[in-house]
Amino acid sequence: TYDRCGCCLFRIGKNNNESITGLCNWDGIIFFIEYCGSFGLSIAGRKSNTAWFCSINNTNAHYIRFLCNIHHSTGSCRGGEIILFELLNLNDIKNISDAFGASERMPLLFVGHGSPMNAIVDNRFSRSWKELGSTLPTPQAILSISAHWLTRGTRVLAMQQPKTIHDFGGFPEELFAQQYPAPGAPEFAKATQRLSTKQHIVLDDEWGFDHGTWSILMQMFPKAHIPVYQLSIDYGKPMSYHYELAQEIRSLREIGVMVIGSGNIVHNLRAINFRDDAKPYDWAIEFDSKIREWIENGDHASVIEFQKLGAVAQLAHPSYDHFLPLMYVLGFQHAQETPSFFNDDFDMSSVSMRSMIYHI
After folding, report:
1. Angle in degrees, CA 51, 52, 57, rounded to 5
2. Could you report the per-residue pLDDT of 100-111, keeping only the tens digit for each?
3. What is the pTM assigned to this prediction?
4. Concatenated DSSP letters for 176-200?
5. Which of 149, 163, 208, 211: disulfide with 116, CB 3.0–4.6 Å?
């Protein structure tokens, strides 16, 4: 590799008859890559942490995945590690080539979902979701990371037609009768699995859409016409794991996938106040404000280490399942993107409904 003008030129090959040559910057973002060998010549110029392109051999289409990492000790590409290089037949991932066509980068959202009743009632939160949905571009698929799918190990929903899960109790029968019949996105699930080179993601055919997903999508996309899939949360892993996994699969947004993290920045069900005039607790306001400040400043490290806030963090999240989707959203963020907040209010005193959308 050669450091020239902040870029790295790399070349891999056993001989002159078959080689890969490319150019990436210090962040490992590949600007140009070409493959020359028995399959002919292919060139790609996508700006992505992972470069995908097709090489044609007679009538059989193949794709190559290539990922280059920076050298962490020097902070440059000199000595950068080649994480992955593979050649596969596209028949193994039917229709994925279409998904990797040209696409504008899809928006990235964190949605405070709150009560499941927001799926069917008309209030300031549900109206905001509905209004936002009418302005969003139509993605090829939606990836939801919901606080309500906690697993040992990381799984990705890969079903053709996921079921609607009513994972709650004590609510009106009308809520249990709701269905969100959106199709699944198994091709994108497989692509998500392949993008993760450091962590093993298991394809799942048992889960479905939990209320962290369908309660907001019913308002945003009521026609249920967009393919949807979910990524589970391994609750036993540290905060950094979730953030780094999201960074690995961040290029999904470049191929038509809209990512939604569904949780709450403050979520303490033990402290809920059902009075109509209920005001948020001081500790809830303090925690919500501090997280907002860190997000606005791009201080992801402080958000990841939120438990250093001590008692305030413990009150805001007696368990931190509803905070974990935020780790994924921050990991999916690109450096040049800034957040726009909405629904920056509280429900029942101890649930922050603060939400945000990232776009260029």
Report:
1. 135
2. 554 789 999 999
3. 0.74
4. HT--------HHHHHHHHHH-SSS-
5. 211
